[in-house]
Amino acid sequence: MDKNIIRRGIGFVSLLLIFQITHAQFRTPKILKHPKRILVKSLYHLNSPYRETNICISPDGKYMFFMTGRGGQPWSGKPSRRWKGRLEYSGDIWYAQKVGKKWGTPRALPATVNTDNGEDEPNVSPDGQKVYFQSWYGNWEQKGGPYYSASLYGSHWSRPRGLGGGINAFFQNRQDMGEELATDGASMSADGKTFIVAVGPYDGNMSLYISRKDRFGRWSFLKRLSVSTMGNERSPALSADGKTLYFASSGYGGYGGLDIFKTTINSDGSHGKIVNLGAPFNTVYDDYGLALTAQGDEAYFIREGDIYFADTKDANPEMKPNTSTLMVTGVVTNQKTKKPMGTIITFMHAQTGQVITRVTSNSITGQYATMIPLKDKNFIQAVRKNGFNNYNKGFSIQIKSGLNKVIANIKLTPVEKEEVIIAKKDPVIPPKIIKKITKVVIKECAAETGRDN
Fold first, then answer.
1. Can you name the CATH fold of 28-319?
2. Dihedral of CA 59/165/218/113: which sign?
3. Who's near 273: CB < 8 A, 6+ residues apart?
4. Which helix (H) or strand (E) holds 313?
5. Distance between CA 450 and CA 325 in Å, rounded?
6. In CATH terms, are 28-319 and 325-441 the same topology?
7. What are phi and psi of 175, to 5 degrees?
8. What is the model's pLDDT at position 323?
9. Partners of 345 in the β-ladder
10. How far is residue 393 CA from its own chain's centroid?
11. Residue 236: how many CA atoms within 13 Å on its side-chain side?
C-alpha cells in the first residue's frame, strides 16, 4: 500500500481521536436559568471614556480595585496604547470605597505603585490594606516580579515587594524560551495563599495557571489548570472561599465570544462541575472579569471595557459561591482617648493555641479585617502592645450559609503609670480565657449583625 495513503489514514484517525477526546472532556456545560429577571446597569461614575478592566472586590463588597486607561496622572504621559483601534494611556490601578450603598469617587493609587509603564490586574485583601498587582517596570526579574504586593500604612502605600518564588521563575522561564509574557487577569485568594493567572499569546488563546504558597511563604511554580481548554481562558476570579473560581472562556461553547463560567478548584488542581452563568451575564459579545462578593448577592463584571453591576440576590443559587465563609472585622481604639490605633491582632485556635493568622489594624482608622477558615470557627483574639493591658477574647461562631461577618471591635486599656507591661512576640493564652468563649450567632449573613458581647 502507498505509504502516503497510510500516513494520511493515520493522520485522519489521530485527528478523529483528538476530536473525540476533546469533545468528551469539554462537553458543553449547563447554562444557568435565573428564576427572576436580573437587572444589569453600567456604573457610570466609575467608568470613563477609556477602558476599565480586571476588577476586584473585597469579600464584604466595600472596596473595588480595577485597571483603567484613563490617565490624567503626573506620570501618565501621552496616550500610547491602542485598544480596539482607540488610543489610551498606559494602565493604572484605581480604587473606590463603598459608603452605604454608593461608590465613592475612584482614585488612582500613588506613584509608589503606579508608573508610566502600566500596572494591571489588581487584587485587594479583605481589609483593603494590601493590593497585589502586575507590573513589568524596571528589572522585574531581579525584583521578584512581575507580580507584587504593596501595603497601606496609615494613609501611605508602601513600595512594592515582588511575590518571587515559582511565580517569578515561571515568567523568567517563558522569557528564556522566547515565549510571550502576555497575561490577562490574575486572582489572589482572600487568605493570600492561592494565585491563579491567565497566560499565553497576547492576541491568541490563553490558559489558566495556579500557584500555592507553602508554610514557609514560598510560591510554587505555576502549573496549568485542568479547566483550561484548547480555546481561550481569561479573567480568573477566586471567591472568598478560595475554591470557587469564575473565569471567561471561548472553549466551552455558549452565547458567543468569551462567556463567563463557574467551577471549583480542588487542592490537587483538578476542577469540579462547570456551569455557564447564562444571561444577562453572557451575550454574543465578550463577557469577562466577573467579581462577586462573598455573600454572592452583588456581581460586578466587564462588558466591552466598562464596569457593570447586577443585583444577584434572586439569581440561580448555582451561580453563587459553594462554601460559606467567615470574616472578622472591626476597629481598634484606645479605650481612654477613643482614638483609632494601629497594632497587630493575633488569631489563635481556642483549644490548641495555634496561630491561625495575624493582621495589622490601620494606624489612622484602626480598621482591620481577615478571613478565618471555617475549621477554626472557635478562636481567640489576642493583642500585645507596649503600654497597654493584654487583650484576649474568645469566640465560638455558629456558621450559616453565605458570608458570616463578625464585628469585633477592640478597645485597648492603657496601663497605669506605675505598671510596666512589655509586649511579647507571641501571645500566650491564659487557661481561663478558654473557658470564657463568646458565643456568636450570625442572624443575617449579609448584614453586619455579628455580636461580640
1. Neuraminidase (2.120.10)
2. negative
3. 29, 263, 264
4. none
5. 13
6. no
7. -65, -40
8. 85
9. 359
10. 29
11. 30
User: What are the extents of the domains in the chain?
Assistant: 28-319, 325-441
The H or E element spanning position 90 is none
Side-chain half-sphere CA neighbours of 23 within 13 A? 6
pTM assigned to the model: 0.86
Contact, 131 vs 109, CB < 8 A?
Answer: yes
Q: Which are the contacts of 384, defined by CB distance < 8 A and separation ≥ 6?
A: 344, 346, 390, 391, 423, 424, 427
Q: Determine whether 124 is exposed, middle or buried from the number of CB atoms within 10 Å of its CB (0-12, 13-18, 19+).
A: buried
In CATH terms, 325-441 corresponds, of 2.40.400.10, 2.60.120.460, 2.60.40.1120, 3.90.550.10, to 2.60.40.1120
Return d(Cα 127, Cα 124) in angstroms, integer: 8
C-alpha cell read off for 343: 497594632
Q: How far is CA 151 from CA 73, 103, 388, in A?
A: 21, 22, 25
Across the chain, which has 453 residues, the per-10-residue mean pLDDT values are 46 40 62 93 94 93 94 88 83 94 95 93 93 95 97 94 98 96 95 96 95 95 96 95 95 92 93 95 91 92 92 93 91 97 96 94 95 94 95 94 93 80 57 53 43 38
* Angle, vertex CA 173, rays to CA 167 and CA 179, nearest 5: 110
The rounded distance, in Å, linking the Cα atoms of 233 and 247 is 7
Give, for 174, the enclosing helix (H) or strand (E). helix 165-176
Cβ-proximal residues to 180 (8 Å cutoff; 6+ apart), any chain: 174, 200, 201, 202
Strands (E) across 200-297 are located at 207-212, 223-224, 233-238, 244-249, 259-264, 275-276, 287-292
Number of H helices and E strands in the chain, helices first, is 4, 34
Backbone torsions φ then ψ of 15, nearest 5 degrees: -65, -40
